[in-house]
Amino acid sequence: MKNTIIILSTLFLFILGTTTSQSQNSYPKKNNYLILSKNIQQLKPILLTAKELAKEDGKKYGDFYVIICGKTVNNIENNTDFISLLEKTTLQHIKVFVCGISLNNSNISADQIPSNLEITDNGILYGFQLIKKGFISLTI
């Protein structure tokens, strides 16, 4: 009888602990977004998309990152339209990164790009790392 009470108590505590940890894991998480782009002309529709997702997600809206890579980095320096759009990304709390490998391949140094762009050593690798952290990803 004593063993039965101990076994039932242990079983009850195990079930309670499992249920509690499952309910904590089901707590609503933030929706984080990542766009890997090879075309800086896409920044304007990206801004519109981020704005709509922020409205749609409400409190569940998390981070929104854009990684620019490829030959399009050649068009960043002194591109007034792009710089204007970058200012809007700051207002919308969107982080824009540029791939360091792409900059190196195009012989562009960090001081040649707008200061509100962040450089990531390897844009593709960083994209995969963000996906592993749960970011919803799209490549355009």
The overall average pLDDT, rounded, is 85
Estimate nothing, just give the exact number of structural domains: 1
Residues in β-strands, percent: 15-25%
Model regions low in confidence, pLDDT < 50 over at least 5 residues: none
CATH class: Alpha Beta
CATH fold-level name: Hypothetical Protein Ychn, Chain: A
The number of distinct β-strands equals 5
Protein name: Sulfur reduction protein DsrE
InterPro entries: DsrEFH-like
Keywords: Signal
Written overview of the protein:
The chain has a single domain, classed as 3-Layer(aba) Sandwich (Hypothetical Protein Ychn, Chain: A). It has helices at residues 2-25, 43-57, 80-91, 100-105, 123-132, and strands at residues 31-37, 61-68, 94-99, 118-120, 136-139. Strand 1, helix 2 and strand 2 form a beta-alpha-beta unit. The chain has 140 residues and is α/β, with parallel strands linked by helices. It comes from Pseudalgibacter alginicilyticus. Keywords: Signal. InterPro entries: DsrEFH-like (IPR027396).
In short:
It is built from five helices and five strands. By secondary structure, the protein is α/β, with parallel strands linked by helices. A five-stranded parallel β-sheet has the order 4-3-2-1-5, sandwiched between helices.
Write the layout of secondary structure elements.
Elements: H1 2-25, E1 31-37, H2 43-57, E2 61-68, H3 80-91, E3 94-99, H4 100-105, E4 118-120, H5 123-132, E5 136-139
Parallel strand pairs: 1-2, 1-5, 2-3, 3-4
InterPro entries: DsrEFH-like
Keywords: Signal
Signal peptide: 1-23
Characteristic terms for this protein:
140 residues, alpha/beta, Hypothetical Protein Ychn, Chain: A, 5-stranded parallel sheet, 5 helices, 48% helix, globular
